[in-house]
Design brief:
Layout: E1 25-27, E2 32-36, E3 42-43, E4 45-51, E5 58-64, E6 81-90, E7 93-101, E8 105-111, E9 122-123, E10 132-135, E11 141-145, E12 149-153, E13 165-166, E14 178-185, E15 188-195, E16 203-209, E17 217-218, E18 235-244, E19 250-257, E20 272-281, E21 284-287, E22 309-310, E23 323-324, E24 332-333, E25 341-344, E26 356-361, E27 367-387, E28 390-397, E29 400-407, E30 410-418, E31 424-432, E32 445-452, E33 458-465, H1 471-474, E34 481-500
GO biological process, one term: carbohydrate metabolic process
Family: Belongs to the glycosyl hydrolase 43 family.
Protein name: Glycoside hydrolase 43 family protein
Length: 506
Amino acid sequence: MTHRTGGSDRHLRQPRDPRYAPRPEHLPGRGHYYLACSSFEYFPGVPVFRSQDLVHWEQIGNALDRTTQLDLPPSTPSSGGVYAPTLRHHDGRFHLVTSVVPHAGTMVVTSTDPAGPWSDPVWLPDVGIDPDLAWDADGTAWCTYAGIRQVRVDLATGAALEKPRKIWSGTPGAQWPEAPHLYEVDGTWYLLIAEGGTDAGHGISVARGPAPDGPFEPCPDNPILSHRSTDHPIQNTGHGDLVRAADGSWWMVFLGTRPRGGSPGWHVLGRETFVAPVTWVDGWPVVGEVDTRMRFGLPPQPVPVPPARDDFDGVDLRSCWISVRARPAHAWSLKDRPGWLTLHAQDGSLDDPSVSFVGRRQQHHSCRVRALVDASEGHGGLAVRLDDQHHYEVEAGGGEIGVRARIGALEHWRSARPVPDGPVVLRIETQPSGPSPDHPRQEPDVVRLGYETPTGQFVVIDELDGRYLSTQVAGGFTGRVIGMYAISGTVRFDWLAYEPNGDASL
């Protein structure tokens, strides 16, 4: 069971990405759990999901959906932007605290309904990244953040009520103590943190103390979760959060990756969110089996499966659609040609920070994406994007279709092919490459790009190695996003269909 940051799927599946895994916040008496995820350089920010069983999730909105809340300038780097949302419910309101890197700092927004609308932000100038919120019996808000520092804050004004202090260093010798979460359980305060960095050394450790500010004693069995030096299919596990379900059971959500291919293993979907059961032994949380098939949990409560095809017939875009850094009103429209998404070009290519782009996160290792595109007034098409310098696209315009690949400083253009006048169906498919001990450099997947003939035949213009659209090659924190773009003139899209190929759990 996985979840990546943005889009929606019935098996808690969205990439995530994301880097951070906030706690699914349970609202007592209503039987619902809510989950917020990082969105990095994409707008709108912080997708919010709802579930009744911690397995089946549906996206109900985005917490930061207005420029008064989130204004990412073109200088925002890929894998910059919105980090580490933590979602909490206190005194009748939901509180979401997150950071905007590297420009703005840390903010809190609130709402009585997690579907929104959310308030404009209150900024916390004395708080660093990976912020957490907890309240003591007196109602004082304690904010703990990366480096495992802590400060009491006035959430109405954002002002610190004291000087921030370091409260725990984590495991001696472990790098990057971060992502703290603080809980009071039966009179004892528990401090959960991530350690070891977000790659192969990632892990989760815990300490406990008599008060929100400690002193804290570490668990003798730390790290309580890490898959380092194992052959488990889920790696880089860390950045966890705890939730107590309505039936009294405990669970942990945490980040991990599913690398594919040969050495060193490439993951292309970003850091996903997983869940595992938790029991308590001698006053410490013990994490149970990490099962990708989610064969345990609360009584199942399935949610409606989003349609594979979006015909752009609504008055606004669905909440799963995201854009790079911003989505200015002049760059897109659902009204210019009703029933079509119209994109007006802003910058010259997908290399540029303000490209006109509307996409959704790749949710499966194997998928097929198709769109009916009218590029008679410009150039654009379908793209698989990891960041500004790593993307593949199939592009129509000027009566031709071609494939472009950007890999760092290198650019590859496959010679264009003429196509008949009128709209054309562009198509991208990803297929995982099976692991083979005879090929240590086996790619994680292949990406096929091309178009369909009027009879539906897939004409593959190019087949590209998927490792170059992976975190191990490009760096950063996010996974792929697949979507529509325009780089000159006006390009229109009648529909887009995203479908998993084969087993939807892959």
